[in-house]
Each structure stands twice: as structure tokens, then as C-alpha cells.
Amino acid sequence: MTINQSILCIGIVVFLGSVALTACVKKIAVQKNFVDRPNLKGHKQHHIPVALGGGIVIYLLTIVPLAIGGMCAYWFNNHLPPTWLPAALVEHIPGLAGKVPAIIYLIISGTILHVTGLLDDKLHLGPMIKLAIQIIVALLLTIGADIRLNFFIHNIVFSTTLSVVWILIIINSFNFLDNMDGLSAGIATICATILLSCALTNEQVFVSGMLVLLIGALGGFLIFNFNPAKIYMGDAGSLLVGMLIAVGTILTTYYHQAQSVSDSSALWVVTFMPIIVLAVPLYDFISVVIIRLILGVSPFKGDNRHFSHRLVKRGMSVKQSVCTIYLVTACTGLGAILLQQLNVLGAILLGIQTMMMLLVIAIL
What is the pLDDT of residues 21-61, one digit of tens each? Predict the structure, then answer.
């Protein structure tokens, strides 16, 4: 069994586990009255209480396996690996063991965001408290785990600032997207799958493993979260999902795949791939923040001004609106995969195509 096959098998197991665990958590959440009531948040689309707790499923099937995997890699690197472990995976154990410090910071950061989200789902924390905690998490990831963007500019202040801002934007983008049944989970699944294709191509075992855990967890949860939703992930899930997507975009290697490009000056353009992959979440986040600021309201105050809400106001059903956004996200994402094979002119044309798709959204 190859390493890619092993990773995909893990994804299937996590998906099946997510289906079973989500069903259990949904039942328990209703019994414990851990539900999202529409009268508490008028911008919500549902009219009856819906179970919360999807974030717990996502946490248990992403952060916990990462912790177990890190401990196993560390142990097997210092002891004889078991004979049943695939040979393709055994050769990657030293590299995975070297990721243990980063895994520790990921576990700490993910746990902080998950607990913060749980408290917010239950007690409704203020936006400034959540933002302060997100900044702490972003600093932990960039300074502690050394997870940074640099765009080939090797300046620690620049890379730290850029990475913190990027992580904050992506966390809040997916938190903002959690405004309609199946929207945030579905878009995160699409984006993570596109990132996974790049990570697998470059044999990035750790990043691939993290992304496949997220995809499997979200896939099983999405069965219950798609309209009409029977359970929500809440902030306990959306904050964690945003963090994992942000880390995935930073750690995934894009430019190695561009070595065959004849124009070497085009190598740097593939570093913009995450922006194209996440074009729709970024558009929704930026447009909503701008609209709220123009109207003089807090950018963190929930309302019905998201792209999804505007499509429904145009006459679409919730399912049609969500599926439309899925398709646009997939289109921009699939175009991003081609970025690694394009020269500068081709990359510019792809950027123009992405902007045109966003303009279609703007017109709608």
C-alpha cells in the first residue's frame, strides 16, 4: 500500500466515524438542551431549535488523531516500528517525528479555539474576547510552531505579521460562512480537498494527513448539516475549521510543482494559489465587513448581508443558494490547481477569470 493510499484509507475511516459520532452527539445535544435557538439570533435561517455539538465531532476527529499520530511518530522513531505498519509510512516516520513540536502547538491552538467556541455557543461571548483569543492562537502558530507565510521575503517581522493577519482572516471567514445549512462545512471540504491534491502530489505526509482528517470529519458531519440541518457545528467547529484551513494553506507546498515551468520567473505566482482557492470565502468576508462598516455597525454583528442570504432574497431556495456557492468555490479552486502549470501570462488570465467569477457574485 502506497503512502497516498494509506492516507486516503484514513480519510474513509474518519468519514465513517464522523457519521456515527455526529448521530450520537446530535441525540445527546438535544437531551442536554445544547441547541441553537432562532430567537436568540434573528439572522439565523432556522425556525426551530437545532442541536449544536458538530464542532465536538470535528475536534475529536481532527485534533485527537493528530495528537495520537504525533505520539506514535515520536515513539516509533525511537523504537522499532510494528511490522503491520505499511513500509511506505515507515520511511516517513522520522519526518513526522520532526513535526511533533508543530503538532503540539496545533493541538493547543485547536483546543483553545474549540473551548472558546463552546463557551460562545453556550454563553455568547463578546466578539472582542473571541478576537483577542484568536490573536493569541495566531501568535502561537506563527511564533511557536513557526507556521508562516513569507512570499520569498525572508524577514521575520514581515512573515509573522502577514501570517497572523492571514490566519485571523481565514478563521473569521469560515466563522462568517456558518450562516446557512451546510455552507461553511461544504466550502471547507471543497477547499481542503483542493489543498490535499497539492499536498499529496508533493508527498507532504503531515499536511495530507491533517487535511484528510478534516475532510473526513466534515464529510460525515455534512450529511446531518445539509439543509434541512439536524445539527450545527457552532463556533466550536467553525473557528477550528478556519484554523486548520489557514494552517493547511500555509504548510502546503505549491511552487515545487512548478519546476517544469519554462519561465522560471513564474514560479512565485503559485504562492497566490491559496487566495484563488479561498476566493469565495474571502470575498464573502471582505464584502460583509465593508458593508457593515459603511452602515456604521460592528463588523462582527451577525446579519443577513452574506452572499448566501442575498441569493435567497433573489428567489433561490436555501439548497440552491448553498449549491451555487459550492459550484463557484469548486470552479475557482479547480482553476487554482492549473496555476502550477502556467506562465506569468497564464496566471494573470486565471486571476482575471477568478475576478470575473467574483463579479458575477457581486452582480447577484
Answer: 999 999 999 998 888 877 544 555 556 788 999 999 999 99
The residue whose grid cell reads 501570462 is 345
* Residue 141 in grid coordinates: 502558530
- Smallest Cα–Cα separation from 244: which of 300, 134, 170? 170
- Strand-pairing partners, residue 36, are 50
Q: Taking a C-beta distance cutoff of 8 angstroms, is the pair 351, 279 a contact?
A: no
Kindly report whether the peptide bond that precedes residue 101 is cis, defined as omega within 30 degrees of 0. Answer: no
The phi, psi pair for 51, rounded to 5°, reads -60, 140
d(CA 92, CA 81): 12
Residue 326 is placed in which grid cell?
459550492
The whole-angstrom separation of Cα 95 and Cα 83 is 19
Residue type present at position 45: Q
Contact between 113 and 174 under an 8 Å Cβ cutoff? The reply is no
Residue 214 and residue 62 in contact, taking contact as beta carbons nearer than 8 Å: yes
CB atoms within 10 A of CB 245: 26
State how far the Cα of 6 lies from the Cα of 350, in Å rounded to an integer: 33
Label residue 139 by pLDDT band (50, 70, 90). Answer: very high
Q: What is the DSSP string of 84-102?
A: TS-HHHHTTHHHHHTTHHH
With vertex at residue 78, the alpha carbon angle to CA 201 and CA 72, rounded to the nearest 5 degrees, is 55
